[in-house]
Amino acid sequence: MSEFLTAYGLFLAKAVTWITAIVLVSVFLITLLRSARSEAGPERLDIRSLNRRYEGLADAIREEILDGTALKHLHKQRKTDAKLRAKRDKDGQREARPRVYTLQFRGDLQASAVESLREEVSAVLQVAEAGRDEVVLRLDSEGGMVHGYGLAASQLARLRHAGVRLTVAVDKVAASGGYMMACVADRILAAPFAIVGSIGVVGQLPNFNRLLKRFDVDYELHTAGDHKRTLTLFGENSEAGREKFRAEIEETHRLFKRFIVEFRPQLDIDRVATGEHWFGTQALDLRLVDALQTSDDYLLSRVKDADLYSLQFRRRQPLAQRLSEGLVRLGIGLRRSVEETTLPRWH
Which residue of the set 2, 38, 90, 228 is catalytic? Predict the structure, then answer.
């Protein structure tokens, strides 16, 4: 009897695993087909009203805490307000409210999000009214490559040069290249424990020359120009090469500091450009930021006096890339389902 139960249990586990696999594959294929149909072109700009989103969140609570009479009164008041706004629009009496365009930048080493940022900035510049409208950038980046973050900062500078007010909100981190982007803003907001600063430059690479020599492997590097290659991974580095490499880092640091001073002349640049980072409360004292506030609080404070929009530029990934990413997710899901059905558990 025990052997039968063991065999039956193994059969049942295998059956559950296969059924789960078939369901996951079916769901994946259906989702992929739906997404392919919904995306009319290779790229699009998603626009969402944050006013409606915040109102919807508040209404979800009101439905629970208000009685029927209060809810009826609320809906009636909204209908009256809507009719009044429509009449003012028709008569041309209603003043246009300022618009706040919210963008998001999640940084990586290459600042790859700059490809979307440049499109979003180009879109905003065609419709935003200088002196009235505003862009809020939710920035989260630890920095990375100099050229990538330099381009990202230059994209934000386009807004400043066009007279469109720019606010950068740092909820978690804006360090190194991330702070290079933030300093372009008219105003920088930071959460109290957000990490800000790290105004410095670092360059590092391993050298395997001694390892190659141990195994009698020769490595040749031929260049034209004294400083075409300063340090190498496999060749024997010279002291002159090291000096040149350090000089290049120092020059990059000087350019970094000069860029920050251009947009935030109130900073004591020698005090803050040491490579250190600070929490938001400390950054406020050092004038690295202008106020302690989360992006959520700032946007909520603008709901009543402005029209808020969230913008996100998306490029459609090639089918092969979407399939490979989907298969990876599918594999992870299958592994978890197998573990859940076959591994012993305490009850």
Answer: 228
